[in-house]
Amino acid sequence: MTAHLADTPVLETARLRLRAPEMRDWPRWFAFVRDERSHFIRNGQKLDEGKAWRAFAHVAGMWALRGYGSFVFCLKGSDDAIGMTGPWHPADWPERELGWTVWTAEAEGKGFAFEAAARARDFAFGALGWDTAVSYIDPGNARSIALAERLGARLDAEAPVPHPAEPTLVYRHPKPEGRG
User: Fold this and answer.
1) With respect to CATH, is domain 11-130 assigned 1.20.1600.10?
2) Tell me, what's the pLDDT at 37?
3) How many H-runs (helices) and E-runs (strands) does the chain carry?
4) pLDDT (tens digit per residue) in 53-100
5) Which of 14, 8, 10 minimizes the C-alpha distance to 114?
6) Spatial CB neighbours of 174, under 8 Å, sequence gap ≥ 6
7) Tens digit of pLDDT for each residue in 99-154?
């Protein structure tokens, strides 16, 4: 038997399909978190296989426990994960977040993260009824800062951060127009 999140929505954009994380995504996730490109999401820590597995299971568990979570995104016509984005809210975080990662160097710089994150944001504000969302970003992560700004988010210096000892910028996403 293969476990899956049967009720998880599948979203689409012009080029991408956003779906629940699945076991087949584990090798690509594991390769990503072991790559230097992921240092911003792991706070510079090295993740051994066990810690990487728990982080991946946290992604699937968010769907099971909160009823929403990050979507893995793939090019249409392929099931090969190239990144992840979506609503995110661990128990100890002060606000609900919209996060993103691009797992392969080949997928960077092509607008996939923007396309996927914009669709996930619309899902959070629409289907989930969120009235606000933030993105927590390391001050050194220029690419994520640029993406947040491209999505229309603005720096919110007054917002609380999940881990006050770690340098973190908070970008607040505006509620899309036409959503009460």
Assistant:
1) no
2) 80
3) 4, 8
4) 999 999 999 998 999 999 999 999 999 999 999 999 999 999 999 999
5) 14
6) 152, 153, 154
7) 999 999 999 999 999 999 999 999 999 999 999 999 999 999 999 999 999 999 99
SS3 36: helix
Radius of gyration of the chain (CA): 15
Burial letters 156-180, b for 16+ CB under 10 A, else e: eeebebeeeeeeebbbbbeeeeeee
Backbone angles phi, psi at 130, to 5 degrees: -65, 145
Contact 75, 12 (CB under 8 A): no
Tokens of 5: 């999140």
H/E element, 74: strand 71-75
More confidently predicted of 42 and 7: 7
